[in-house]
Amino acid sequence: MELTQRLGDKIAIALSSLCVIHCLATPLILIILPSLGALVADNHEMFHQVILFLVLPVGVLALWAGYRHHHNLSILLIGLAGLGLLLIAAFFGHDYFGETGETALTIFASLIIATAHVRNFISNRNVQSNHNFPSNRTLPTGDCHHD
Predict the structure, then answer these.
(1) Which range in 45-49, 71-75, 133-137, 140-144 is most confidently predicted, on average pLDDT?
(2) Which end of the chain is more exposed for a tag (fewer CB within 10 A), N or C?
(3) pTM of the model
(4) Angle, to 10 degrees, between the axis of helix 94-132 and the axis of helix 73-88?
(5) Which residues contact 80 (CB under 8 A, 6 or more apart)?
């Protein structure tokens, strides 16, 4: 389960980063190369659907596996909130918030998701370190008098 969680966190961070880059780069590409507008418009929705299809199961699995290991509920809830916001952006963002609002909400959700996965990864590593070096170990004491 630890491998699933670590790998899942890394994949979720990469996908969230890719989403942010896509959301920020698309308008710039359209400004610089307007002839690509039709190509980008056709693939824009498909890109979001593919990312959502990948990030939801990977994200939930990695967050849950991490929570079972480190028991930090705030990390799980922050990650799930980010995933929920991403779902809202994907299904309702354009209709309720317009294109700019959808993009802003998607970027915000992606940053929340990435932050939760970074915290999940670090918390898991800290718990693992604590298991390898328990704090309840005592060092041998002896009479070491050096005169």
Answers:
(1) 71-75
(2) C
(3) 0.76
(4) 160
(5) 60, 63
Q: What is the pLDDT of residues 71-92, one digit of tens each?
A: 999 999 999 999 999 999 989 9
- Per the CB < 8 A criterion, the answer to whether 114 and 10 are in contact is no
Distance CA 60, CA 45 (A): 22
Query: Among 85, 125, 111, which residue's Cα sits nearest to residue 5?
Result: 125
pLDDT at 146 over 60: no
**CA dihedral over 45, 48, 54, 60, signed as positive or negative:** negative
Helices of type H across the chain? 2-32, 37-70, 73-88, 94-132
CA distances in angstroms from 52 to 42, 46, 47, listed in the order given: 17, 10, 9
Measured between alpha carbons, how far is residue 138 from residues 128, 133, 141 in Å?
19, 11, 9
> 39, 73 in Cβ contact below 8 A?
no
Q: Which two tokens stand for residue 32?
A: 């610089």
